[in-house]
Design a protein that fits this description.
mainly alpha
Length: about 140
């Protein structure tokens, strides 16, 4: 162990000893030099790299309800219901109200297994995968 290094305790007395070291490493980070290239190119590349802005990590934008499903009416959580005569279990196959057949789901929803089989065949066209795709297509008729 190098002299001057802190040592953490164990159990409840344990503390992270690498926090200040990680901050120092990030603060003192230098641009790495690329090996190879023609004579004099390294200085030019270093100059370009130092002038280039560093990438900033940002959180991805969350989709809004309007961008996902079109126009969606929003109601506050503590506002009164807009459908007072509709049972709580409407759209569910249990309880009062219409079952799942009342939901507006597409009738011709694609078969996920058939789509997956077609994608596999496109990526790797083998006779076995061709027969699987043909079987899905015949089943759909």
């Amino acid at each position: 162990m190098a002299e001057g290094m802190r040592v953490s305790g164990v159990g409840k007395g344990a503390r992270r000893t690498d926090l200040d070291r990680a901050a120092k490493i990030q603060r003192d980070a230098k641009i790495q030099n690329a090996a190879g290239g023609a004579y004099g190119q390294r200085a030019e590349l270093q100059g370009l790299a130092q002038g280039a802005p560093m990438a900033q990590a940002s959180a991805p934008a969350m989709p809004t309800p309007a961008s996902v499903g079109g126009s969606v009416p929003t109601v506050g959580i503590f506002e009164p219901t807009q459908r007072p005569n509709e049972p709580l279990t409407a759209g569910v196959d249990v309880g009062d109200g219409p079952g799942s057949e009342a939901l507006m789901t597409p009738v011709d929803a694609p078969d996920q297994l058939a789509t997956f089989a077609r994608a596999m065949y496109m990526a790797n066209p083998t006779p076995q995968l061709r027969r699987i795709v043909e079987a899905f297509e015949e089943e759909a008729r």
